[in-house]
Design goal:
45% of the residues lie in helices and 5% in strands. By secondary structure, it is mainly alpha-helical.
Length: 121
């Protein structure tokens, strides 16, 4: 299972450990690609959470629907401006980055290290 899908499948467990997760759209293949169109389709879905879960699971996403401006371009640009080079990238409350997947318990430890001033980024 790709690491971003694995992380997404563990969000409920991560939440139970006291970590709040907020997603940004960052289709790492960039503008005018299939992943970009999927990100926009997720935004345009009536149930974005369900659509995101389906997309992360590799299910087909109807990319034919559009809904006007989406945050995909803005969030992608933000990711570019802060140096995101891959997914998952976790940005902590202090602005540090944790690059790559960590199992939930290790993620909690890493986040505590960042809060305590022991940043490794």
């Amino acid at each position: 299972m790709p690491v971003l899908r694995k992380l997404h499948s563990q969000i409920a467990e991560i939440n139970k450990l006291g970590i709040r997760v907020r997603y940004m759209f960052y289709p790492r293949t960039g503008p005018n690609t299939d992943s970009w169109r999927k990100a926009e389709a997720v935004w345009c879905s009536a149930d974005r959470n369900e659509a995101l879960t389906r997309a992360k699971a590799g299910a087909a996403v109807d990319t034919s629907k559009t809904c006007g401006p989406t945050p995909v371009a803005r969030e992608y640009a933000l990711g570019q401006s802060i140096g995101v080079q891959g997914t998952p990238t976790i940005v902590t409350e202090t602005g540090d980055s944790i690059n790559g997947y960590l199992p939930p318990q290790e993620l909690v430890k890493e986040l505590k290290d960042h809060q305590g001033g022991k940043s490794k980024s």
